[in-house]
User: Fold these one by one.
Assistant:
Number 1:
Amino acid sequence: AAAPVMLEGPGETEPPRINISISKRSMASKTPVGFIGLGNMGSPMAKNLIKNGYPVIATDVFPESCKELQELGAQVMDSPADVAEKADRIITMLPSSPNVIEVYTGPNGILKKVKKGTLLVDSSTIDPSVAKEMAVASEKMGAVFMDAPVSGGVGAASMAKLTFMVGGLEEEFQAAEELFTCMGANVVYCGQVGSGQAAKLCNNMLLAIGMIGTAETMNLGIRLGLDPKLLAKILNMSSGRCWSSDSYNPVPGVMEGVPSANNYQGGYGTTLMAKDLGLAQNTATNTKSSIPLGSLAHQIYRVMCSRGYANKDFSSVFQFLREEEAQ
Amino acid sequence: AAAPVMLEGPGETEPPRINISISKRSMASKTPVGFIGLGNMGSPMAKNLIKNGYPVIATDVFPESCKELQELGAQVMDSPADVAEKADRIITMLPSSPNVIEVYTGPNGILKKVKKGTLLVDSSTIDPSVAKEMAVASEKMGAVFMDAPVSGGVGAASMAKLTFMVGGLEEEFQAAEELFTCMGANVVYCGQVGSGQAAKLCNNMLLAIGMIGTAETMNLGIRLGLDPKLLAKILNMSSGRCWSSDSYNPVPGVMEGVPSANNYQGGYGTTLMAKDLGLAQNTATNTKSSIPLGSLAHQIYRVMCSRGYANKDFSSVFQFLREEEAQ
Amino acid sequence: AAAPVMLEGPGETEPPRINISISKRSMASKTPVGFIGLGNMGSPMAKNLIKNGYPVIATDVFPESCKELQELGAQVMDSPADVAEKADRIITMLPSSPNVIEVYTGPNGILKKVKKGTLLVDSSTIDPSVAKEMAVASEKMGAVFMDAPVSGGVGAASMAKLTFMVGGLEEEFQAAEELFTCMGANVVYCGQVGSGQAAKLCNNMLLAIGMIGTAETMNLGIRLGLDPKLLAKILNMSSGRCWSSDSYNPVPGVMEGVPSANNYQGGYGTTLMAKDLGLAQNTATNTKSSIPLGSLAHQIYRVMCSRGYANKDFSSVFQFLREEEAQ
Amino acid sequence: AAAPVMLEGPGETEPPRINISISKRSMASKTPVGFIGLGNMGSPMAKNLIKNGYPVIATDVFPESCKELQELGAQVMDSPADVAEKADRIITMLPSSPNVIEVYTGPNGILKKVKKGTLLVDSSTIDPSVAKEMAVASEKMGAVFMDAPVSGGVGAASMAKLTFMVGGLEEEFQAAEELFTCMGANVVYCGQVGSGQAAKLCNNMLLAIGMIGTAETMNLGIRLGLDPKLLAKILNMSSGRCWSSDSYNPVPGVMEGVPSANNYQGGYGTTLMAKDLGLAQNTATNTKSSIPLGSLAHQIYRVMCSRGYANKDFSSVFQFLREEEAQ
């Protein structure tokens, strides 16, 4: 049985070391891949494509973001449209829905010059309904769109240990999988277009609920006189068990190698979790789904963002709830 | 590694079959055990003591509850005080805090006639602060009190598969453990008096949060077009994983042998969960602990109790949240 | 001082009686007004314009909706674009954001044929950001856009007792006010474009919170043995006072002439409140505003919609929370 | 019509000036009143009794608290029992339930020496069920117990402007009312014993919900571009209106003379509100009442207590939710 995948797991503290030793031959034998969006996540992902012998044709709104990749051999273009003209497989990795809409359907967007049959893979985390819109727009131009959001953070991106949750036509899945395996360790096919995004939002919503619940429970138990390590052990052998209690415990001193052991540095930031919960809330509102705990989790991370926890790992909710009242 | 303990797991649907074949000799060699409270849980627990060769001296406010046990050889007394006069180890299994107070400190209570050095074990689920009060009152009379709430339900009680969470003096633990192992499969020492109750409340609060969270998440995913089995699989290999998603999934059709596969019959009733969450809320209020999700979980199970879900398994929250809006 | 305005107040139970006695002369002297969207709200609003002597040029996606108005003298067109060609003041009254986008910017939308200087007033309840987008698009065509959502329900629409909350350029406000006063009793200028929508969403969010809070409080008080009328009186002379406690009490028997006195018929439906709270939630998420109680109120009305309360007045939350638990 | 009573209103900033000019004659003609608990609230209340000519017989666990009252002519006793021996009307004003239990039923408590027919009035804010217990215990000794919690704060106590919410036998109400009118401006009879407490908890729970709701709404509106004063005006003429929006607005700059205009100094502290909400939660749990918003309000004030808001006015929840996220 495969080891459990850690979505949005703790960030690595050591700098990623990637040995780029590419045989010119292998590069020549592979068709180029377009890559749009060279931020914290996109840049190491693109590097891993290069490392695996794919010629990369890249662009970013900030030209300086392309420099490092250019030195590694990537061809840099001025716009998404220009990338689309040259590559028949393109990956996009962008911060949010409006950027995705612009990169695909804007005046210099991919769809202005996309070739028929091109495979478009969006790895951004966005609203599933936007993914569906992009798929419809792509199809009109004869291209194929897949959503493939990732989890695992910057460290996992560098070490090609990401998990891809993929939505799209099953018959196109294999063509994309070849690329995913260069950048990640796990690939999960989730169904039709948009279901990659849906799966990621669902997972992260339940993760947030489990984390806050674990933080509340551990805090309550400690105040009732229980030893935190013992309480964690009891929960983990019982029905209270969850990933946040057994693999990412938010209480300092209970586990090693997790953000709570490192003053909540690294890991998955509260701001990112608040963004994901906002997307989950939007999809729930649009589908008239009741998510009472998910909504409250969203509000709690929202408040935390404005009270100094924006850049701490999301397990810092324990610290947020923990402090003793002033007497 | 031991299999995970399922606290408050699904009830068994088949009637428990216990072969009572007790050697008279072994009975003679063991000192009698008092047992007060012969309800749905207490009765099979007491039977398991008899089965293991312990002479049982029992009582209950409803005399008819004692009949079956009497036929198996138990001696039936009129009051807790009378039991205390005859046994130096006594187990109590009662519905709630007021009953415990009455049975220990009432006019015909245990403490009226308890012998010095008697071991008193309360397996009821009550407020940890009441457990501490009982311990203080018992100590005044020279007796030793332990709290040892159980999980596992009626089926586990019948099959001696309960889990005991025990609070009390560590040096007295062994004397009690001998009895626990006749009635249960797992015994967890949690610390000072009251910590058995604390551990149980903590676990069940996190369990309730995880269950509602799982129900919300599965419902949202389904509305977003995900296949429920696939979504459960993705969550369970990811950071959204929890006991409610991987061992007790609330969505019909995802797992077999759980209440959701049986129209939410059996298992752990919504009323019981609401009671536990009320106790957790009380302890949180008293210790000024913030439990935002735990509080909301309490309110949700409270509403469910009044809307026809009182006697369904607590995983029926999926059904409660699921229904489509009338158009 | 003016009497308090009741936003989304109780619906009238009697059919509205409007005496349409229009002088042909006054009609001739006024410039025509376009009206798009002749549903439950739009139809009586347009009638009131006719009653006040304005020639009306109307359209609706359902041609049969136009019949009654046509008999009263309105000119019916095929599309919003056609209306725009003929009228230089146009009011739109549509169910939700996508309809507004279609009617303004669609292939047969207003903006296809709008004349320079036309005043466009949207009285739909939609996302403030969509209102702003429509304003930008209108401005590009040389037209002026205002948002002017209403409150008061179908009864108030019929009796020209609506309240308009208006966002847009202050210098254009007077030209619009002339029309509002034909259809409503109160007009509130709220600021720049979008602020009419913002004000409405803010009011209705606080209204929902106050209503659920009143329902919880009254229920708790009743269970503690207080007489509901006396409790309402105490709250209303104290700091717990709110519109839901003193003008629209949700407990049957406390007030007359409100939906709670009529089995929660009439008034403002739970579905509509859930829609408004969804919009409020969206704007809060987009502006990163924390609305813990507003979010929970949204979820509660969402659950109610799927449990048989969709068409009852939103004060039926008292009934939803009230029921005694099964014993 | 009487002016609305402000329960727990803003504290006065000026020191209270009480002219104590007591005619010896009037004092002689009135029977003495016992007063137990001379804290921030009790002390000015007892002074107002003296001012109105009542001989006061007082005690407090901290003897130094009695000094000032002694100088004004009060007779100071060693214990509640001693007070009970001398007075046939006794008022108690204590911090919380355990103190009340001790003062009434403890070894030196009132009930040890209470005379038959004595009127006992408890003005503490406690659990209604404890009030009922005290009533039962008092009745056993032939005394009459009433609960009469107050609202209005220290300033109102000094100026005899408190509101009393009274529970107890209606036929005893007049004997007590004579005393209440010396210390307060409003007296509300709420029903049987415990209903004074019930009414106070209900009011304060709805007050807390309204305050947080107002804070969320004002914050959301401001972020949407609305002017806070204008938004408050719109809400106050509409159905969002509540005491917190129209009489105690939490947004600095909207109103004068309220804590939000004075950096949230004075008024009703967050800690006190959290205590009241804890009591409300307990009574709700005990009566199996669903209070979703009340529960969440409790949790929010609980978190605020531990994050530096303990001693600020409870309207500071606006500030707590307001802060912009770090970018």
Note: Confidence is low (pLDDT under 50) at residues 1-28 of chain D.
Number 2:
Amino acid sequence: MGLIVQKFGGTSVGSAERILNVANRVIQEKERGHDIVVVVSAMGKTTDQLVSLADEITSKPSRREMDMLLTTGEQVTIALLTMALQARGYEAVSYTGAQAGIVTESRHGNARITQINDEKISENLAEGKIVVAAGFQGMDEHGEITTLGRGGSDTTAVALAAALKADKCDIYTDVTGVYTTDPRYVKGARKLAGISYDEMLELANLGAGVLHPRAVEFAKNYHVPLEVRSSMHEERGTLIEEESTLEENLIVKGIAFEDQVTRVTVCGLPNRLQTLSTIFTTLAGKGVNVDIIIQSVTDQDHASISFSVKTADLEDTIEILEKNKSMLNFSKIESEKGLSKVSIVGSGMVSNPGVAAEMFSVLAEEGIAVKMVSTSEIKVSTVVNQEDMVRAVESLHEAFELSGRKASIS
Amino acid sequence: MGLIVQKFGGTSVGSAERILNVANRVIQEKERGHDIVVVVSAMGKTTDQLVSLADEITSKPSRREMDMLLTTGEQVTIALLTMALQARGYEAVSYTGAQAGIVTESRHGNARITQINDEKISENLAEGKIVVAAGFQGMDEHGEITTLGRGGSDTTAVALAAALKADKCDIYTDVTGVYTTDPRYVKGARKLAGISYDEMLELANLGAGVLHPRAVEFAKNYHVPLEVRSSMHEERGTLIEEESTLEENLIVKGIAFEDQVTRVTVCGLPNRLQTLSTIFTTLAGKGVNVDIIIQSVTDQDHASISFSVKTADLEDTIEILEKNKSMLNFSKIESEKGLSKVSIVGSGMVSNPGVAAEMFSVLAEEGIAVKMVSTSEIKVSTVVNQEDMVRAVESLHEAFELSGRKASIS
């Protein structure tokens, strides 16, 4: 008996039929004696439809009005799910973000939650009601409707769980948990029973996609135990906690990868203190996300800087740099498309020297050239040719003993 | 220069293209130097779509959750219209009912407005902004989202006009104004330049359909001048005011009519004081709307009561009466389908005796039998056979000099 916050994403509530299915999952936990708060996203393609309506009106809608428009999506879902619960004979009540007491900054389109006034929800829970809250949205202190940006519904769920001191926050999604690597690419990929916040954060940032990094960070800061699990299957998912006590003998927990990476090298830069900050401030100011950065000094006066960007950002990157050529004072720009990033993640690395070295050996044995390297305490990322990506992941998955020979706990 | 509240219904905002057209109408008035508040309904078929979604979930959705669901409709429209105005370079801001300060009773599905907190809108108007508010919706004192029921958007517009002391409330619709009678049936039907609140109220109640009676009543109570006009054409519409100064020589202003009327007669009732109230309380309790009522005493102990209902309600009516036969103590029920109601309306009747008599003469000359009669100070209603309806309207329209011989002022 405790309080559980359940979050269901857009696919899980994509039709009336699926909403009825979600109602079943909610009732299941309720019947186990738990208090339940449900956080839902907009139905499947609703958001896309609203965006294209706006597009028919203007190519540059204001952020405030986009928030006004898009927040109707979750409002529809909370009403329908609450009707479904009521039709099954359960007391339930729906709340928009504003009504749920989600207070945010006054930044439309990408606001952060600053406060949660949970009196109303707490009262309803005490009365035995199931509370259904709209994800992704809130209200600022002036009564303006705001949205939380990407991963917003995950963040709403975790924030409510933190405010209400929930025992657990279950993130229902279309996969059954967090895997050692993407099972669509690697046969031996296996669901993890447990993983730490930091490991999940690295995996989430590296594009594992199940959970938004922001929500994981929030969960870590407020010590909210998360479980990523399937909305379609009964099986247990992956538990995300401070220190995962499960499978702790694994040094590497997961392998993340992404393609469409390009390396850009800016050559013949003056070897000055400000060079690095000037280049990346310029790029960030124009919205280009730079990932791995490597600086090398060619001679006493000159340096070159390599960095990786998404291939889709390459044109913008070069245009911005060329525009600022006189200020940045470089000689030329080189770029190499067709690359991928492959990363190993695991908090065991901190106490196990030589993990990076083992990674490089494995790749060398496979004849895979490493173009760039970046490390953190619990992660090693490498950039390799795109055609080597899957082979790199598979061989690392095998070498670090992640493959299915050890049965999943679930 | 003044403040105008403009209201556009669901058909007028039925697509992105139409919303852009509405933006033009708004800008036109703004450019004349007026401050503008726009009230809009949900786009065309949105409400129907939402209702059928709810229907897929449950056949008996709670009123609270229906309000939660349906209010998203207007919220989409306010966002899109505001984007359209902004795209044209005008400062504009959208508000949900709650944000616009529309406070209502705590009755979901059919709440009345109890208060309007207009500080925010007044501030925005002072800053030169166009305010776009969601019709049909409000919030009760507990922060619950409510809806105003049928004709809700008209009521929102009039209520805002009253609170803001607007100079005028323009109701844009798909007809060009209020007509002497329905132009689809009577060729000579002619748009009225002006009409009084009371006359409009009788016409609205009699099914003229352009404007909800509740909104007219509100306008009358708060002395808000209304204009019913077309969202597609430029021409002036019909002005509705306390005492219409236009066309005041007309005794009859308009002729309303509706078909699908049935007369029900309950025979052999005990001639007691409570009989009337018992019958109609029983019917009202079951949601049957009774229109004209006629009581006749057959002998000292017995009375019969005739009343008219919509033909669609006939089955329910008979079922309810039969169920309560022992309590009501009647001998039998008779009913006559295939009837219509034809009414003449005009505040000039009060000071002109004999208008009813003239009506009956006209009908008699046409050989039309009058089955029931009901009168008020500014209205005479008759029930006639359905096949006589259009001929009755045409002959009355001619007899009371409503036909187009006198040109409309617009």
Note: The interface with chain B takes residues 16-17, 19-20, 50, 53-54, 56-58, 60-62, 64-66, 68-69, 71-72, 75-76, 78-80, 82-84, 86-87, 93-94, 96, 99, 120, 143, 145 of chain A (CB under 8 Å).
